[in-house]
Amino acid sequence: MEPLVVLGEKDYFSCCRSVKFAEEMVLAGPFYDYQQTVTAARDIWFNKVDVNGWLEAFAAHPPIGESPSMTHESPTSTQWSKGEQSAALATATETTLQELQEWNVRYRQKFGFVFLIFASGRSTPEILAAMKRRYHNRPIVEFELAAQEQMKITAFRLSKLFTVNSATASQIHTKYTADVKKAGDDFASDWLFPFFIFTFCWSMLFLVFSHVFQFSNNDLDSIEL
């Protein structure tokens, strides 16, 4: 069974900006479907990527509510970040944005990394409430929660990446199938018809010669008699 799509290190790195994560995903792949990909991603993220790898991935995210920077993320990641925060930005006011910025600073001062949350579909008030609640966690607890949120983001981005590449793979497969069928049709038109004519002619010649040979034998028999 051939894998549906084959993703590279850059693809995985755009989903989770940990070099270790991307390298391990390439070594574990290729995968046959999205579910298998996510299962491997969870295992690698929680069991093979160390603390430094987690912090590396965390650092690639812009503070929640701020526009992604091209210096921190790839073009693909930047586009995804904007989409993931679109609901929050759409529901934000000047007051809530200011409050969000203040809490971003307080959170980072306490924990040493940006506040991470799977923001897709969440409003600014929801995100603010979650940040205030999690601010009271112990650092070790919050570090684990941030890693879990990163995994949610990674899984979501993998689904997008997998969907795009699967569609491309499907298009390639369809084109390949059409090309093979056309090649078969061309072979039939180019070779089968001439072959049929050639076979028919030889068959007719064989019948003619057989008839002549039989006629000659009958003549000889009559002469002998």
From TrEMBL:
<feature type="domain" description="Oxo-4-hydroxy-4-carboxy-5-ureidoimidazoline decarboxylase">
    <location>
        <begin position="14"/>
        <end position="158"/>
    </location>
</feature>
<keyword id="KW-1133">Transmembrane helix</keyword>
<keyword id="KW-0659">Purine metabolism</keyword>
<keyword id="KW-0812">Transmembrane</keyword>
<comment type="pathway">
    <text>Purine metabolism; urate degradation; (S)-allantoin from urate: step 3/3.</text>
</comment>
<dbReference type="GO" id="GO:0006144">
    <property type="term" value="P:purine nucleobase metabolic process"/>
</dbReference>
<keyword id="KW-0472">Membrane</keyword>
<feature type="transmembrane region" description="Helical">
    <location>
        <begin position="191"/>
        <end position="213"/>
    </location>
</feature>
<protein>
    <recommendedName>
        <fullName>2-oxo-4-hydroxy-4-carboxy-5-ureidoimidazoline decarboxylase</fullName>
        <ecNumber>4.1.1.97</ecNumber>
    </recommendedName>
</protein>
<dbReference type="InterPro" id="IPR018020">
    <property type="entry name" value="OHCU_decarboxylase"/>
</dbReference>
<dbReference type="Pfam" id="PF09349">
    <property type="entry name" value="OHCU_decarbox"/>
</dbReference>
<dbReference type="GO" id="GO:0051997">
    <property type="term" value="F:2-oxo-4-hydroxy-4-carboxy-5-ureidoimidazoline decarboxylase activity"/>
</dbReference>
<dbReference type="GO" id="GO:0019628">
    <property type="term" value="P:urate catabolic process"/>
</dbReference>
<keyword id="KW-0210">Decarboxylase</keyword>
<dbReference type="GO" id="GO:0005777">
    <property type="term" value="C:peroxisome"/>
</dbReference>
<dbReference type="InterPro" id="IPR036778">
    <property type="entry name" value="OHCU_decarboxylase_sf"/>
</dbReference>
<keyword id="KW-0456">Lyase</keyword>
